[in-house]
Amino acid sequence: MSPEVSDANRVHIFDTTLRDGEQSPGISLNTQEKVEIAQQLARLGVDVIEAGFPITSPGDFEAVQEISRRVEGPVICGLARTHKADIDAAWGAVNDAARPSIHTFISTSDIHIEHQLQTTRDDVKGQAKAAVALARSYCEDVEFSPMDATRADVDFTAEVCAIAVEEGATVINIPDTVGYTTPAEYAAYFARLYELVPGLRDVRTSVHCHDDLGLAVANSYAGVLAGARQVECAVNGIGERAGNCSLEEIVMLLRTRNDVHGLDTGIDSRELARTSRLVSRLTGYAVQPNKAVVGRNAFAHESGIHQDGVLKERTTYEIMDATEVGLESNSIVLGKHSGRHALRDALEQLGFKIEGNALNQAFHRFKAIADKKKQVTALDLEAIVSDEMRERSESYALAWFEVEAGTRRAPAAEVAVRLPNGDESVARASGDGPVDAIFHAIQQAAGAEAELRQYNVGAVTGGEDALGEVTVMVHAAGRLATGQGVATDILEASAIAYVRALGNALEGAAVREAEAATADAASEPTPGP
């Protein structure tokens, strides 16, 4: 749960799951999915949600704008390069938020200045000055990042940061953009910046570390110990290349070892596991079993010695209580005789407020699953509701399927796919197995070729009647995309997931083509810090 923390000892959590996290290959979230994640981040208690990069596309602008209008609590931030058009777009997307913010950035490393920006140090200083001033004219909360700072000359970076502070930046972020630094180097870098820029003491300093060398959490921690009071991180550590600092890991590191540093966050840690599951389900990025804090083995004990110790006293082999991160056993258990009112109450306990037709659809789905399962747990309900939300927002969807398979005949499948225009397209195909046959039939029905890159099957809960959860990644129409499906029948879950992945790829390609027809090549956004 969230503790009471003094301002001096409070580390702010800046969540970039929806910006840097969504830049991971294969992740393609629609507006509704982004809003759902943002609402959960608000329940988690993050201080800032970096909701996206509005100049990137109309879709990203719309998502940031919708989050600004619908999500209460955290600061809602939009990313922008130092270009006027970027900053205008960021402000246009976040200005409906109760607490809007603009985050602008430009590189200070010579390797970026020479090869990517193809400009000069003086121009970088000028761009930083103008950008922060413009952003500050729009809103009071402005963050500035000297991208690739840890590979840049510290004296020059200090000059640029001083300019940003003078122009009114309220947060100065020092990004380890390519995951290059080490904890000792990062701490020394901060110490030197504080010496060179006395004004940094009057603003909040922030860390943004990538995990290319597996040091994102360690470097972020080093930065905090050196004086930073904001950590930029992502749920499950997702992000560009090897990812970002893992939100759940840095939060629990600060909380568990508060005895060492006296620092903490405002995060409600009981929401960590649920947030992790939601992001994993919607992005299609599975959480590895041995993932710290939220992996399914994080509190599991195989060794007899460990089991014996834990049974006698939990703290013999566990430095955290599983209930602290929301991994307690589920108290919400429904069955096939449960009614609509019971379902609504159970969903409200989980934070889902659903009424009207949405409740009717969720109830219909719940009844269909309850007929096949002895008990429907809280994890099942989360999966059902998230799955329903995705289905209602999709233009490609599975209508029905039939499969023929056995040891004496070649597997074959007939599939109907609902297309964006509302028509159903039916196709039949064979394959090496029932799943392969279904996937080939879906391609034919959708009229698109695709290459399967990943296929993962998991169980939402345990037991013989567990809900199956399938995640697939496909390469189609020149892009990677993921899709997820949930059902008691693993073939059905596979079919749903594949249709969604293929649909995400086709829709994304269509959007990019439309944008490319009107976009100015010079305004192509760089990935960000």
Brief descriptors of the model:
529 residues; alpha/beta; 16 strands; 41% helix
Describe it.
By secondary structure, the chain is α/β, with parallel strands linked by helices. It contains 17 helices and 16 strands. The strands form four sheets. It has an eight-stranded parallel barrel with strand order 1-2-3-4-5-6-7-8, surrounded by eight helices. It has a three-stranded antiparallel sheet with strand order 11-12-13. The protein has a three-stranded antiparallel sheet with strand order 14-15-16. Strand 1 (12-15), helix 1 and strand 2 form a beta-alpha-beta unit. The longest helix is centred in the C-terminal third of the chain and has 29 residues, at 490-518. The chain is globular, with a radius of gyration of 24 Å. The relative contact order is 0.09. The model has no long low-confidence stretch (mean pLDDT 89).
How far from one another are the termini? 30 Å
Q: State the helical fraction.
A: 40-55%
**Main sheet makeup:** 8 strands, parallel, barrel
Strand tally:
16
> Structural class per helix/strand content?
alpha/beta
Tell me the overall shape: globular
The proportion of strand residues reads 15-25%
Question: What does the radius of gyration come to?
Answer: 24 Å
| Helical stretch tally | 17
Strand line-up of the largest beta sheet: 1-2-3-4-5-6-7-8
- Average the pLDDT over all residues and give the rounded result: 89
Uncertain regions: pLDDT < 50 for 5+ in a row? none
